[in-house]
Fold this sequence. Notes:
ABC transporter substrate-binding protein; globular; D-Maltodextrin-Binding Protein, domain 2; 5-stranded mixed β-sheet; alpha/beta
Amino acid sequence: xxxxxxxxxxxxxxxxxxxxxxxxxxxxxxxxxxxxxxxxxxxxxxxxxxxxxxxxxxxxxxxxxxxxxxxxxxxxxxxxxxxxxxxxxxxxxxxxxxxxxxxxxxxxxxxxxxxxxxxxxxxxxxxxxxxxxxxxxxxxxxxxxxxxxxxxxxxxxxxxxxxxxxxxxxxxxxxxxxxxxxxxxxxxxxxxxxxxxxxxxxxxxxxxxxxxxxxxxxxxxxxxxxxxxxxxxxxxxxxxxxxxxxxxxxxxxxxxxxxxxxxxxxxxxxxxxxxxxxxxxxxxxxxxxxxxxxxxxxxxxxxxxxxxxxxxxxxxxxxxxxxxxxxxxxxxxxxxxxxxxxxxxxxxxxxxxxxxxxxxxx
Length: 362
């Protein structure tokens, strides 16, 4: 009896030590905000990073949360409702005009060309951006950065963005296409992943020419609150590194990337479609988005911000009236984390992607 008692006295502290060690090694919980009503295959770098364990390798337990639009992401990160977010530089730039404005900074570039498109029905009499005068333009939600870029494109076409056009929230997917086809709105300003989904689901649309100057502007990037760069630098590096791996995986094996996205977010998989056609459509959506996730200007250093391109973006937004003042670039983004983010074996990730067996997915 005494021997049992002694064993208990020894064992209990050991159990406590093991539990403490386990807790110390637990992954850090992170809320990552995605600018969409539904996380689909266009955001596969994030889904792949989670499914393949890339986040876990960085000690992160990431919860991917769809929040509707980029402007909503920026405001939510600013308020502390999320730790990191992917967002188009719409409301973020508006809020960064003052040092006392939004408490945000970008730390990894995702999209090197604009994601924003203007589309009309195939039989619409609207042929150019100028023809939008007096028209109603549909956007997914009033929290979408589409309203910022829609106004910028209207101004670039010589229209008054506040009086010559009006913006109407029409939802997304079939809801948005119904609004267009029933002439509730005359045009749509949506991101390329949304318009690609329209086409993949059989809807007919026609793109208006917004000009190469606009199309070549930088877009979505990863952002966080400024204090995180001092207090949580390893988390930011680890998160972006995992996403970079997810991008390379998606590029090497788009079918697997699509299947992984649908596995994690089954509501994004098309219903009532032939599975082969659905996968082909998903791959099209994925490839179109992955095409703009890098640029020759980065020279292979993923996520690098290109100063000249961001200066053009700020000039464009100011000329169009979206921005009222100049913004110092060092208030908008930093490349300081990029070297650490790129410290991983890119070829190994590509090999992993090519060897991935869709048939063995759990």
